[in-house]
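Below is a filled-in request sheet from our internal design queue. Each sheet records the structural input a requester submitted and the sequence that came back. We keep these sheets so that new team members can see what a complete request looks like end to end.

REQUESTER: design group, bay 2
PRIORITY: normal
MODE: inverse folding
CHAIN LENGTH: 296
BACKBONE (tokenized):
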């Protein structure tokens, strides 16, 4: 494998076409095509789906991750060879919206003091982020997915607890004695978000009759506070809203959903990714419930 072939593969997938990849690398489209074909011949398999946009095959994703890791290690080497020069590089990572709005904020404060990286946050539902690790599009992911991506390590961070809440007025109209989970209006974050349906299934309900879709963290909480419907809100984001009575819990005392978060990252870390992981662990210790102890 040659560096120019791996660079061509990354450019084709990132830019979406052979022509755009050629412009990004300042070469001709035939040169890009030749490099991809040479890489495919060498491995005896198709690495790129020639679609619009182009995308990597499962085999191509393996080489994509390799190419991005090589680039990260190369950046480390350049920094070590020229310590008096600041070399700023991208540091893409996956984080879920609820974490970003609450316990993850101290990581941003630490990153503000790092002169050599530019953070790039990819927002995904907590159990949908690992696909970015498979392609190398992210160096790490805060995820609830327990399946370890090949070439990565996983470390528990803690538990983010979600509580079902609504306004007192909404509870009085729909759930004064017993919650009618099917008829109580619900606010949902996105079509991929299954947290509230986990709670509904405990009560034998597949879905609420009225579901409002609010795909933004702060707007989601604002909708619940406005009485649009009930929602699962994380403990850090609730703050004192239960103490002040603006929102009230619904259901039983054990009606909550615990999301076990972990930091999954490349097994071959650079100095930048190691520093990022340490900052994430510090923030998690202060903002999340402790992870469960492994059973003996």
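RETURNED SEQUENCE:
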């Amino acid at each position: 494998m040659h560096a120019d072939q791996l660079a061509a593969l990354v450019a084709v997938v990132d830019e979406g076409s052979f022509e755009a990849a050629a412009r990004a690398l300042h070469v001709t489209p035939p040169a890009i095509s030749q490099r991809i074909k040479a890489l495919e011949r060498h491995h005896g398999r198709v690495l790129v789906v020639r679609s619009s946009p182009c995308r990597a095959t499962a085999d191509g994703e393996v080489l994509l991750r390799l190419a991005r890791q090589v680039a990260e290690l190369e950046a480390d080497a350049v920094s070590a060879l020229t310590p008096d020069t600041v070399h700023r590089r991208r540091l893409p990572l996956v984080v879920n919206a609820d974490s970003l709005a609450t316990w993850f904020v101290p990581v941003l404060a630490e990153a503000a003091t790092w002169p050599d990286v530019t953070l790039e946050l990819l927002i995904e539902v907590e159990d949908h982020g690992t696909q970015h690790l498979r392609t190398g599009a992210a160096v790490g992911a805060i995820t609830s997915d327990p399946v370890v991506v090949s070439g990565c390590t996983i470390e528990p961070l803690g538990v983010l607890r979600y509580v079902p809440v609504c306004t007192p007025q909404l509870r009085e109209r729909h759930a004064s004695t017993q919650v009618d989970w099917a008829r109580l209006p619900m606010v949902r974050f996105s079509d991929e978000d299954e947290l509230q349906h986990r709670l509904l299934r405990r009560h034998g309900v597949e879905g609420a009759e009225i579901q409002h879709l609010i795909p933004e963290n702060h707007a989601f909480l604002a909708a619940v506070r406005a009485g649009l419907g009930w929602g699962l809100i994380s403990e850090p984001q609730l703050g004192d809203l239960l103490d002040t009575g603006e929102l009230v819990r619904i259901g039983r005392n054990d009606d909550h959903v615990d999301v076990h978060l972990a930091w999954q990252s490349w097994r071959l870390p650079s100095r930048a990714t190691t520093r990022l992981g340490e900052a994430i662990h510090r923030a998690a210790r202060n903002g999340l419930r402790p992870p469960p102890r492994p059973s003996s």
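SHEET NOTES:
- The longest helix spans residues 58-81.
- The first strand starts at residue 48 and ends at 49.
FILED BY: M.R.
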